[in-house]
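Design review, sub-item: ligand-bound model
Attendees: FS, YL, KQ
YL presented the inputs for the flavin-adenine dinucleotide complex:
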Amino acid sequence: MKNFILCFFLLFSTLYAKEENVVAVIGGGPAGLSAANICQEMGYQTVVFEPKAEFPLEDSVSFWPGIVSPKWSAIIKNLRESLTKAGGTLLDKQVSDISQDKDNFIISSGREFYSLKAVIIATGKKPKASSFLYRRSDRILTNVWTRKIFSPKDSVIIIGQGEPLFHACLNAARGAGHVFIFPYQGNAPTLASLTKIFPSVTITRNVSITDIGADKRKAFVTYSQDRSKLYKEASYLIVAEEKDPASDLVANLCSIDSSGAIVASNDTGETSLPGLYACGEVTTNAALTGVQAASDGQKVGFAVTYFLVSKGIAPKKQSVAPLPPLQPPPEKKPEEQTEGLF
Ligand SMILES: Cc1cc2nc3c(=O)[nH]c(=O)nc-3n(C[C@H](O)[C@H](O)[C@H](O)COP(=O)(O)OP(=O)(O)OC[C@H]3O[C@@H](n4cnc5c(N)ncnc54)[C@H](O)[C@@H]3O)c2cc1C
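KQ shared the predicted structure:
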């Protein structure tokens, strides 16, 4: 029955679609949009599925260490605009399933089905499930990139690990009167630099968090250290969880490593299933910068066009003018005489 409905939808969409999409990109972050722009510009009708029209990290961009303020919201907006200008499609939809039907991929989004020749997964990361996250309170913040602005009368406890812990700490330390850090793992080297910049930060290492909680006035953490049971309270508590690659959609289609990252070629983004490609943060357990994700997307966009050509699927039209032929470099003038000047 499911197959019958699928066939019906596919026949219907093929008959009535104005221009058939060839490539689907799942996820419209820097990686997905960059890949989509390349595929579209190379002449393959491309559709991007992205339920969030706004890039969610806009406010945090300014404090990403080492990056001189590229306005990511503006970059994402430009990438979205250039895609639609080149004839690509942005769908404000979440993909719920991907399957295969002979040479085609079938993408389901709600009750709609789409048939594509190649699929690029660029779904980034999703929060790691935490045993503490079920605690709901205004005093417990589970979103580490909280836009909350702390004041000097606030004290903040942060529990967590890795990069989210670093960012939560940086955010809190800029405003709060005191910040107490409890890393999940003893080794949180990047935090040491923060304690030098912000004297308000205290790190308590080698503890085991046993519980968290809150009432109307305060939040607290209980922990054990050297067999002692201890308690700390503050105005707010942040659960700074690391994120996992969001690879669930393709878990049954291609190889996934033990960290949940999609196993994809560094050079091309090819996964273990021909025609299925992956790029950006979904392919690694590490954190990428937006620039790295975007360049990964571009590379994978080109690889997908090579794949389509190898399958005999020709591009429809080149929406950008081909590059002019390379010119030989201008002849070098003989160096000017500088003798006697110094
Ligand atoms: C707090 C924070 C601050 C940062 N600041 C900077 C910075 O200043 N400069 C910088 O260079 N980098 C920064 N980064 C890193 C940068 O955000 C990432 O490297 C980049 O976003 C990764 O790009 P991506 O395209 O792989 O994934 P993402 O940007 O995460 O995009 C994945 C997209 O896939 C969509 N998606 C997921 N599942 C589905 C589905 N089933 N169907 C449809 N769509 C789906 C999601 O909605 C999401 O928009 C920051 C990261 C964080 C967490």
